[in-house]
Amino acid sequence: MIHQNMKKILMVLLITLFVFISYVNVVKTEDFHDLGTRTVSYGDEGSDVAILQQRLSDSNYYHGKIDGIFGNKTVEAVKKLQKTYGLKIDGVAGKSTVYYLPNNSIYQEINITRDEVMLLARVVHGEARGESFEGKVAVGAVILNRVEDSGFPNSIREVILQRGQFSSLSDGQANFFPDQISINAARAALVGYDPTYESLFFYNPKVATNLSWISKRPVILTIGDHVFAR
Question: Which CATH class is domain 47-104?
Answer without folding.
Answer: mainly alpha
